[in-house]
Protein 1
Amino acid sequence: MEAVQDAGVVVTGAGGGIGAALARRFAAEGARVVVNDLDASRAEAVAAEIGATAVPGDASGIVDAAREALGGGIDIWCANAGVAFEDGGTDLDERTWATSWDVNVMAHVRAAQALLPDWLERGTGRFVSTVSAAGLLTMVGAPSYSVTKHGALAFAEWLSLTYRHRGVKVHAICPQGVRTAMLEATGAAGDLVLRPTAIEPDDVADALFKGIAEDRFLILPHPEVADYYRARADQPDRWLAGMNHIQRKWEANR
């Protein structure tokens, strides 16, 4: 793919799951890849596997180190690192809310702040945000995840509408269940809502590359999410009643 060949690509949270799948796919397409993860050993293992460079650490603060590792500019930034908690309800503590907000939203904001000056000067750049179908819809039992993923989607939309005429392309990936460690952490709610239609991380990478080729903002690895999103907008009370039915099933099985 011409848009990826020899591009300098950074994938955060790439020690496993969706991030590792994205890193592998970019490397296979001829990109020069930086693999980031908080867990240095996981980042280094994926980087060694695909001939990339590991830059471990907090995704919010690695832009300069990633540029140096790539020997120049960053062409594509994949804001993939994220956190999810089996939250429960409104009794969720503020530390968990703060962590969710910082990782799922503010890390994207900080990366964009560091990347945009160079991208706008060059007139090119690509920001890929791993959001979630929860950012378009919501997720039972996971208030902090749902709210912050809505925030991540809103920020990606804002980036796109603000800078697309200046050469910055933005993609928001919004899958439902993906067979990763994060899915395992969703507990009973994930078992009820996500696991039955869960896909592999490689399927998410395939969907992204198809979206890049078609120059689409919204990437839906589960195509049925478009119908759910449409129903949510067209008939919000009916949609909320349906989600409440799922909520009651979850409560009965906890």
Note: The radius of gyration is 18 Å.
Protein 2
Amino acid sequence: MKTALITGASRGLGRALARDLARDGWHLVIDARDPTALAAAADDISSGGSSGGTGGNDGGNVRAIAGDVTDPAHRADLVRAVEGGLDLLVNNASTLGPTPMYRLAALPVTDLADTFATNVLAPLALIQDVLPSLRERRGAILNITSDAAVENYETWGGYGSSKAALEQLSNVLAAEEPDVAVWWADPGEMNTDMLRAAGEDADSAPPPEEAAAALRRLVTDRLPSGRYRASALAGAQ
């Protein structure tokens, strides 16, 4: 059985992608900061999104470990949970930074440092920790990015710059690790709490399940390392 580690899986894209992989028979280790929300997500994922799940944090093939990916002790817990071998790491956990979102002229540098800690440094730390297993099993890394990494949206400079850094990190990693598939993917706008917190019209955006279904193709078809957009993947099916 293949094993995936997905961060930020209590809601939105992470939860939807975890549900899809569970249906494909994957063993999952998932994390999020809110233990109550994560337990509910684990129940939903292990039951395939239907009512009447098994309940608890370890229902079916889902193991939930609550914590913050910026915490080295929590990352160590995640690594121990996949000691039997890892086939896929999904770095989905992310933060917008302070909201309402600042224009760059007023963005506190300390807040930007916290954003980079979650969106760039923590993913890299996890990658470093699990790379030996991914190399051995010719596994894959999926880093969730954003169109804000490449577009000049006002007030999105802090978040966008962190995602741009994650994209370049992924780009270099793909060159350095030829035996590991490295994908960095823009899911597009989704109806999520994060988009709503940014002050955008989340209700008119597609559900995260649509992006998850498109990104699943990266895993099932093992597409070449590179940058992908969920909309393009969906259109190519």
Note: Helices lie at 12-23, 35-46, 72-81, 109-136, 157-176, 193-197, 208-221, 230-236.
